[in-house]
């Protein structure tokens, strides 16, 4: 023993050893990395860092190289040289193969996964401030299409995973810290630790009857053991409109209408002719848009000890809209904590959210006010009438437009607020019963109390229907939702030799209660009194209650042999209160195989590729797109009639609801084949998936004949939809010797969507884009959902003879649009309509570039879509609709002297029916944009530590700095318009949806 | 040590037991609807029967029917009304009542709502234990409502399905076929006959407005008249005339003002009330059942709707003759609004041509709208209504009289004369018409009265009372009086869309989509 020690000392001395000390920290937050390995390259000599990340190691000379490694960080090699103090910053390895991905009811090493799961970390999510966390997924995950429903503050995000497999508006299932819910909009993006998107059935079938539209699992940030961290994040942004539409000014408007009236052989309207007032030319569009600020403040306190961790955060977002009279505020508070002692663990999450949304619902009517009418009268009040005093003209007689409103005036007058107070959280307790076997009990809860309030004061702009209200009206609804979840799971996780086994058994029950009470009240004593009890007429009290229950049993087996062969099988059995007793239970199985090819002996010498894995999965998942009580016949209690000399409205009953008691789940069968591999020593990584998703028994509403007395569409499980696609993700991690590191990540997905059956249902007509009943989309067998269906324009008739010869069912003349005779029958009628475009992009992509140099960090995030068409309804309003302003371009209409144009002649009677739905309205909806550009600087630690900070980062960023698109509406990302009950069939229909803003943001992040 | 072990076992056991027990309760899967009654618990009491019959009347006042849209299938189609603008409201009047137009299916849907509700009543109420008289009345009302709505259907759509059982009792409701119109007419006659037997002569004050023996009898007579069964028609109308239950009001205008609703002349009227009920809807709480057709009748400048004007031949017809005191027919002032200073004294009131706010044509328009004629009937300026939309779109509480004693007298006369085919005036016919003319101080007719005189009298007496188009239809004059006169529809699309068969509206597309047996009507 003594000898041995002596020898070692001798050797030691012999090698002229000296001591090198230093500190290992994380590059991202400069936090100490305790227990990191520091070894001498090529030797077995090594030490680990202490709690503060400090190390001390003996080296033998300046040629030695230190290798510093830490789990889930990229290892670094550093040549010692002459230095005796070497501080090392390790960069987190985002795509580390040891990365653990959150999956349903657990987590899995990425290398063990057999399903198609994409995950996004907090780093990506917190890059920009947004009023809806779902927008942070956009462009990040192949196969996931996120479309903002317009650019308004707090706008909904439409999330579609691997194409639409339903004919309803339902979206993915969201699982927030183990609580199952319907959305993630209430979360503060800064609170999110990770998002996992379960794309194939192997991953999602564990959620059974609600998984068919995909599952999004969100895990919020927990505290870490170590000392107290205080993080402050402050930012402010200025948002501005990116585009204005070129509406006609007063002179142009008058010229357009005069020409139309002349063409029609009708007299000109006084306001545009004899009484034209050159002093007035209003532009309510520009008056309605503005530059608007947005600011965000966040505070997070976290830390923990051996037995417990905690994280408390607060966040406040205040966003004004670029359309006046619209703004959004959100306050979040979150408390997450965890305790453990021995085999017992207790974890708790709780998020509180309050959102206050004041939307401007009138923006898309901004052409209601003619440019020949001032926005405000002489005393500064809003108006919609400039007929000179004492004139005997009626509004329609003077202006030629029956309904003239003032959208900005109305938005200003009207008081409308949607307030939502919500809580979502869970408590789970687990206990390791025997080694490897853990029992867990999870209670989840979601509660929300919402108030939807609108008060329209009595006002008078003019006598037309939209120009006044004869009385003030209040519409207010309070609603409460409580969803309770109880889950029991048993998890067994053991490794025997080369066999690794992970078994999950579970059982859960969820009930959701909803209750609402509303009032519509009219006739208030004053515009300032705004509670229902003060109204003379409390005419309606819409109210509703529903309770739904879901009971489930589920299990999963993951088996791995030798890290080479992976097998996953899941099964869930769901029982739902939405369906009839004998149709209530559904079974949803899935199975998947994985093959880690790189772990095969024969691949050992093959260096070109690493971590190559092939996986295949098949499964059946469901979708329960049914409103509560859809199967229950009911008596309508509101079929009243007036009886008696006193004329009393007496309650009568009737049966108005047709039901189909045989409805059940929609079932989706998904097949997925995936390949993953890395190259260049894992610097270049690829993931690709091909999938086929067949949805059957899709609920489609059938309109029963009206002679049944039923007016409601009745659902039947009779449609089928097929989605197939290819998803591709690649990432390259690079660095240069001078400390410059970067990564580039790109993804795209190709999708095709087709309705393969409708059963007895007739094609679904939708996509109304005017108040005059013109529709634009048709959903039929063999076509994508909501395809645009209409006429094809083939130029303009240059002569009356040509127009007559076309044999159109209408009466076109020279200058009218010429429509193609698609079926060649020598006449132009409804049979000449065809499918002329798809509103859903078939190609979506994202490109993310991150770089770091010294303290600087850079981000460029691009995303885009292609292959889709938008219906630009401004063309309807701007060229054809007589009830408002025209686009200035309507002046460029066809005339005998201006024949080289694609704008048909000006007419208000439109005998050629130019305004019928055709590709005249369609434009490419493709775009490519710089979604986010950011540059940040993190101050060196040694400087800021002197002022008591451990992190200080400043950043500048811009969202939507540029967008490349050929679309001529406000913005190519249009969402769905709201005319139809099912908005799915109105995708891509743009009636001036709220414009998306460009913003410039400055922010500061401080850590203590 | 022992205690510690116990703790170790107990804690997870309690956790597990509590957790599993709390979450395995299958009761959560049985949820009954807390928002509405289920039909299975209905049809037990007299109150249920009463609620059901009120529910069957309800579609009358739905916005899709008499509280608004029906006018576009009746008066807006005739040779009197010239509706402004091409729209779904004027489409049917332009012979464009194609299968996808709203007007095509809205009224149809309310007619069948009433019919299906009547069918439920006729099927279920006989089994309810209740007082016999009350039960008979309700069954009679159900018969009346079913017949009335089939009468509307067969006159508007001709080829309609005939359903007399609850939908739930029909094996495959989507295999029903369109019935032979003769069968529908036969059912109408049968139902009105049954209603006539079951319905009371009068109702107490609390129930005024419900169908009566008189209503069933008058419509039975009208049905016979439409079927050219003049003898039976005459018999039924005579029953009304001999009943002593009805008389003409002294003031013609009493039939169009809110203060004189359900008067001595009224045989059946739609009950309307201005109680804030407005908007679109039907069987919904507080909406869709307020009268809303007044803006469609109101003169230009007094409505937010497109509105309409009256074709000039109507005024010419009125002005062709004078009262005994050499004044304008008082009915002209009640019916029309035109540019005149003339006055007529009638029933103690001085009548002038005016509209809302008591404005004369000159006061309303100055030098505009020269020569135009607008409507005045139903606007009820006498009650003091100041515009068609003063308190919103559905402001009027003025009941819509659908069957007046005056109409019975004129129809009786027509039956006496054998309509156009007979065209021979009898003393009974002349006497009946003269009762109507005498009220408004017009010279009595003698035996020289022709069918044309009677047809003109119907225009003067009943214009804008939802009957003119159907008179022309049953007389076979839709083409000659409307389609051949594009000037009568010059403010909208003219009449060039007319084709033989388009006297009727097309079958709603919804029915054709939902039932493969259904066919479009001829001409579409």
Overall shape of chain B:
globular
CATH architecture of one domain in chain B: Alpha Horseshoe
Kindly provide the name of the CATH class of one domain in chain A. Mainly Beta
CATH architecture identity of one domain in chain A: Sandwich
Arithmetic mean of pLDDT of chain B: 92
Helix content of chain A: under 10%
In terms of DSSP E residues, the strand content of chain A is over 45%
Kindly report how far apart the N and C termini of chain A lie.
49 Å
Structural class of chain B: mainly alpha
Draw up the topology in text:
The complex is a heterodimer of chains A (1008) and B (524).
Chain A: H1 2-14, E1 18-26, E2 37-40, E3 46-48, E4 54-59, E5 65-69, E6 76-79, E7 88-90, E8 100-103, E9 106-109, E10 117-121, H2 122-125, E11 144-148, E12 157-161, E13 173-176, E14 179-181, E15 192-198, H3 201-204, E16 215-220, E17 226-241, H4 250-264, H5 284-288, E18 292-304, E19 308-320, E20 327-341, E21 344-358, H6 395-399, H7 407-413, E22 415-434, E23 437-456, E24 459-460, E25 468-469, E26 473-496, E27 499-522, E28 537-540, E29 543-561, E30 565-576, E31 585-596, E32 609-623, E33 641-643, E34 648-650, E35 666-679, E36 684-703, E37 713-735, E38 741-757, E39 764-766, E40 777-779, E41 787-790, E42 793-796, H8 800-805, E43 817-819, E44 834-837, E45 843-853, E46 856-866, E47 869-872, H9 874-879, E48 922-924, E49 927-938, H10 941-944, E50 951-959, E51 963-965, E52 989-990, E53 997-1007
Parallel strand pairs in A: 1-7, 13-16, 47-52
Antiparallel strand pairs in A: 1-4, 2-3, 2-5, 5-6, 8-9, 10-15, 11-12, 13-14, 15-16, 17-18, 17-53, 18-19, 19-20, 20-21, 21-22, 22-23, 23-26, 24-25, 26-27, 27-28, 27-29, 29-30, 30-31, 31-32, 32-35, 33-34, 35-36, 36-37, 37-38, 38-45, 39-40, 40-41, 41-44, 42-43, 45-46, 46-49, 47-48, 49-50, 49-51, 50-53
Chain B: H1 2-23, H2 46-57, E1 81-83, H3 102-124, H4 132-157, H5 181-198, H6 213-226, H7 230-243, E2 266-270, H8 294-297, E3 308-310, H9 312-319, H10 330-335, E4 336-337, E5 343-346, E6 349-352, H11 361-365, E7 374-375, E8 400-404, H12 405-417, H13 419-422, H14 427-439, H15 451-462, H16 468-474, H17 478-483, H18 509-514
Antiparallel strand pairs in B: 1-3, 2-8, 4-7, 5-6
């Amino acid at each position: 023993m003594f000898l041995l020690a002596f020898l070692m000392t001798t050797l030691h001395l012999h090698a002229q050893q000296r001591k090198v000390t230093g500190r290992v920290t994380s590059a991202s937050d400069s936090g100490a990395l305790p227990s990191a390995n520091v070894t001498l390259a090529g030797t077995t000599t090594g030490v680990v860092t202490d709690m503060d990340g400090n190390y001390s190691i003996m080296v033998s000379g300046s040629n030695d190289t230190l290798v510093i490694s830490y789990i889930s960080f990229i290892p670094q090699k550093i040549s010692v040289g002459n230095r005796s103090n070497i501080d090392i910053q390790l960069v987190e390895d985002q795509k580390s193969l040891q990365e653990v991905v959150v999956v349903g009811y657990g987590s899995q090493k990425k290398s063990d996964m057999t399903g198609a799961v994409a995950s996004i970390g907090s780093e990506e999510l917190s890059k920009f401030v947004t009023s809806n966390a779902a927008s942070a997924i956009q462009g990040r995950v192949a196969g996931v299409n996120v479309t903002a429903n317009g650019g308004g503050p707090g706008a909904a995000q439409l999330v579609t995973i691997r194409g639409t497999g339903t004919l309803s508006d339902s979206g993915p299932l969201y699982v927030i810290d183990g609580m199952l819910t319907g959305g993630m909009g209430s979360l503060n993006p800064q609170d999110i630790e990770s998002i996992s998107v379960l794309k194939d059935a192997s991953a999602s079938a564990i959620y059974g009857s609600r998984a068919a539209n995909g599952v999004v699992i969100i895990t919020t940030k927990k505290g870490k053991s170590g000392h107290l961290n205080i993080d402050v994040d402050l930012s402010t942004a200025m948002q501005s409109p990116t585009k204005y539409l070129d509406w006609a000014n007063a002179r142009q408007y008058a010229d357009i209408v005069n020409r139309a009236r002349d063409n029609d052989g009708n007299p000109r309207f006084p306001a545009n002719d004899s009484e034209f007032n050159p002093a007035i030319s209003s532009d309510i569009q520009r008056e309605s848009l503005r530059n608007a600020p947005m600011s965000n403040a966040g505070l997070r306190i976290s830390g923990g000890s051996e037995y417990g961790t905690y994280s408390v955060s607060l966040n406040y977002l205040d966003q004004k809209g670029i359309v006046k009279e619209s703004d959004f505020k959100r306050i979040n508070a979150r408390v997450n904590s965890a305790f453990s002692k021995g085999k017992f663990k207790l974890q708790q999450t709780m998020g509180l959210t309050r959102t206050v949304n004041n939307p401007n619902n009138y923006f898309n009517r901004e052409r209601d006010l003619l440019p020949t009418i001032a926005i405000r009268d002489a005393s500064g009040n809003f108006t919609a009438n400039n007929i000179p005093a004492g004139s005997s003209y009626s509004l329609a007689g003077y202006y030629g437009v029956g309904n003239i409103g003032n959208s900005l005036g109305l938005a200003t007058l009207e008081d409308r607020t949607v307030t939502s107070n919500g809580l979502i959280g869970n408590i789970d307790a687990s206990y390791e019963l025997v080694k490897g076997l853990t029992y867990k009990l999870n209670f989840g809860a979601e509660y929300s109390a919402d108030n939807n309030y609108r008060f329209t004061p009595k006002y008078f702009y003019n006598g037309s229907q939209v120009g006044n209200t004869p009385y003030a009206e209040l519409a207010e609804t309070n609603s409460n939702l409580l969803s309770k979840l109880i889950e029991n799971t048993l998890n067994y996780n053991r490794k025997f030799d080369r066999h690794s086994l992970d078994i999950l058994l579970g059982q859960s029950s969820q009930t959701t209660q909803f209750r609402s009470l509303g009032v519509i009240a009219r006739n208030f004593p004053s515009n300032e009194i705004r509670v229902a009890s003060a109204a003379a007429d409390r005419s309606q009290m819409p109210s509703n209650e529903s309770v739904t229950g879901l009971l489930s049993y589920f299990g999963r087996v993951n088996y791995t042999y030798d890290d080479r062969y992976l097998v996953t099988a899941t099964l869930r059995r769901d029982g739902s209160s939405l369906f009839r007793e004998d149709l209530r239970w559904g079974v949803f199985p899935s199975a998947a195989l994985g093959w880690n090819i790189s772990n095969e002996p024969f691949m050992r010498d093959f260096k070109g590729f690493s971590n190559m894995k092939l996986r295949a999965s098949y499964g059946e998942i469901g979708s329960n797109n049914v409103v509560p009580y859809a199967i229950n016949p009911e008596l309508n209690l509101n079929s009243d009639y007036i009886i008696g000399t006193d004329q009393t409205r007496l309650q009568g009953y009737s049966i108005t609801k047709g039901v189909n008691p045989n409805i059940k789940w929609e079932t989706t069968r998904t097949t997925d084949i995936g390949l993953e591999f890395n190259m260049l020593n894992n610097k270049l990584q690829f993931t690709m998936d091909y999938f086929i998703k067949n949805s059957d028994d899709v609920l489609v509403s059938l309109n029963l004949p009206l002679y049944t007395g039923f007016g409601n569409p009745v659902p039947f499980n009779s449609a089928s939809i097929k989605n197939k696609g290819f998803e591709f993700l690649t990432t390259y991690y690079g660095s240069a010797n001078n400390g410059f590191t970067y990564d580039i990540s790109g993804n795209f997905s190709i999708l095709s969507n087709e309705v393969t059956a409708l059963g007895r249902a007739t094609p679904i007509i939708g996509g109304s884009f005017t108040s005059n009943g013109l529709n634009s989309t048709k959903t039929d067998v063999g076509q994508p959902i909501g395809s645009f269906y209409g006429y094809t324009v083939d130029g303009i008739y240059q002569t009356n003879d040509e127009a007559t010869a076309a044999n159109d069912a209408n009466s076109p003349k020279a200058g009218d649009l010429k429509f193609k005779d698609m079926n060649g029958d020598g006449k132009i009628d409804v049979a000449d309509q065809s499918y002329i475009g798809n509103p859903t992009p078939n190609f979506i992509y994202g490109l993310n570039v991150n770089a770091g140099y010294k303290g600087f960090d850079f981000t460029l995030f691009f995303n885009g879509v292609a292959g889709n068409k938008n219906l630009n309804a401004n063309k309807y309003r701007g060229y054809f609709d007589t009830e408002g302003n025209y686009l200035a371009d309507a002046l460029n209409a066809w005339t005998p002297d201006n024949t080289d144009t694609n704008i048909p002649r000006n007419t208000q009677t439109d005998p050629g029916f130019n305004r019928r739905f055709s590709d005249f309205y369609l434009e490419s909806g493709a775009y490519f944009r710089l979604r986010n550009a950011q540059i940040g600087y993190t101050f060196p630690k040694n400087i800021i530590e002197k002022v008591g900070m451990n992190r200080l980062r400043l950043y500048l960023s811009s969202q939507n700095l540029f967008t490349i698109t050929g679309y001529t509406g406000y913005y190519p990302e249009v969402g769905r318009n709201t005319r139809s009950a099912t908005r799915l069939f109105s995708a891509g229909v743009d009636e001036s949806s709220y414009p998306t803003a460009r913003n410039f943001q400055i922010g500061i992040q401080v850590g203590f | 040590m022992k205690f510690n072990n116990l703790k170790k076992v107990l804690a997870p056991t309690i956790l597990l037991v509590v957790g599993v027990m709390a979450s395995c309760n299958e009761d959560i899967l049985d949820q009954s609807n807390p928002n509405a009654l289920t039909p299975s618990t209905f049809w037990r009491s007299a109150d249920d029967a009463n609620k059901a019959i009120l529910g069957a009347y309800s579609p009358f006042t739905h916005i899709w029917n008499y509280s608004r849209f029906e006018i576009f299938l009746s008066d807006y189609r005739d040779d009197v009304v010239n509706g402004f603008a091409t729209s779904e409201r004027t489409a049917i009047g332009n012979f464009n009542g194609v299968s996808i137009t709203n007007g095509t299916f809205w009224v149809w849907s309310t007619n069948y709502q009433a019919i299906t509700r009547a069918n439920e009543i006729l099927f279920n109420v006989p089994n309810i234990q209740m007082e016999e008289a009350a039960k008979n009345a309700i069954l009679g009302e159900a018969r009346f409502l079913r017949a009335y709505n089939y009468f509307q259907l067969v006159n508007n759509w001709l080829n309609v399905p005939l359903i007399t059982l609850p939908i739930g009792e029909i094996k495959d409701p989507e295999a029903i076929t369109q019935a032979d119109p003769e069968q529908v007419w036969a059912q109408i006659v049968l139902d009105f006959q049954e209603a006539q037997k079951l319905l009371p002569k009068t109702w107490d004050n609390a129930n005024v407005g419900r169908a009566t023996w008189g209503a069933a009898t008058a419509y039975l007579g009208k049905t016979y008249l439409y079927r050219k069964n003049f003898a039976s028609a005459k018999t039924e109308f005579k029953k009304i005339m001999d009943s002593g239950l009805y008389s003409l009001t002294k003031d013609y205008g009493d039939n169009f003002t809110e203060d004189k609703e359900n008067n001595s002349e009224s045989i059946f009227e739609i009950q309307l009330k201005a109680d804030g009920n407005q908007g679109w809807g039907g069987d919904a709480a507080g909406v869709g059942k307020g009268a809303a057709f007044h803006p469609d009748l109101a003169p230009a400048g007094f409505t937010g709707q497109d509105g309409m004007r009256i074709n000039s031949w109507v005024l010419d017809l009125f002005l062709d003759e004078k009262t005994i005191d050499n004044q304008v027919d008082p009915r002209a002032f009640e019916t029309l609004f035109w540019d005149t200073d003339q006055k007529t004294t009638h029933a103690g009131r001085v009548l002038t041509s005016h509209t809302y706010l008591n404005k004369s044509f000159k006061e309303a328009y100055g030098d505009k709208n020269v020569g135009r004629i607008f409507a005045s009937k139903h606007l009820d300026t006498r009650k003091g209504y100041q515009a068609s939309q003063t308190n919103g779109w559905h402001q009027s509480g003025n009941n819509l009289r659908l069957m007046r004693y005056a109409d019975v007298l004129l129809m009786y006369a027509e039956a006496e004369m054998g309509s156009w085919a007979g065209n021979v005036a009898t003393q009974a016919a002349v006497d009946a018409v003269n009762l109507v003319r005498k009220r408004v101080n017009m010279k009595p007719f003698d035996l020289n009265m022709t069918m044309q005189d009677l047809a003109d009298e119907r225009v003067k007496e009943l214009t804008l009372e939802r009957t003119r188009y159907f008179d022309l239809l049953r007389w076979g004059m839709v083409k000659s009086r409307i389609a051949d006169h594009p000037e009568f529809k010059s403010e909208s699309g003219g009449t060039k869309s007319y084709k033989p068969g388009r006297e009727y509206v097309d079958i709603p597309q919804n029915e054709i989509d939902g039932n493969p047996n259904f066919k479009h009507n001829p001409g579409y």
